[in-house]
Amino acid sequence: MRSLIRSRRSEPRALSLALALALGTPSLAVAAEDPAATAAEDAARERFSEGNLAYDLGEFDRALKAFSEAYRLKPLPAFLFNIAQCHRQLNNPSRAAFFYRRYLALSQGEPANADVARELSAEMETKARVQEEQRRERERFARDRELQKAREQAALAEARASEARLAAPPSSAAPEKNGASQALAMQVPEASVQPEAGASKPLTRRWYFWAGVGAAALLTGGAVWAATAPGPRDTTLGTVGR
Description:
mainly alpha
């Protein structure tokens, strides 16, 4: 909290310092015979004034753009501090810490607000780490949520499939099998499928058995009679004189 209050109190002074550096340091003194350099300096002053006004109005995006353009025209380290302040206000701690460090590294000697810049840089680095952890936590939460959603959808699909199987009529495989059996029976002769009538009766109770026995007996009796019969009688009347 102490660092935050101190940094806020230091903002007007820091911006005034940057303005003083941009407009009053000897490094910006340009020889009259260099029109291009003079034009660049004038443009840098205009951009800086626009950025300072936008910052006071809380239009930090516009201020950041103006200060960045001013630095491109005249790369003064003081502009980097103002750029860092804009990023801090825009909740870009990682970028803010970067520009605070660049401001300290590129300044000639120890700037008057060096302690403030270091303190703000450390504060922004800590905030950047917290933001990164929060971002990773949100990503993990989003992944877990998507995974849970996928599992729920899979379970719902399985439940619906089970309900469909239970509600479905009996399988049509049995009728198809019966139909195939009927078709096969139509191709096979009836005699080969149906058992012979009376096949379960004993042989002695079948009519053709006794018919055969009777025929055999007649044949046997005829043969016996033919073998034992006397010779044939002479049926002629004879002849006269015999």
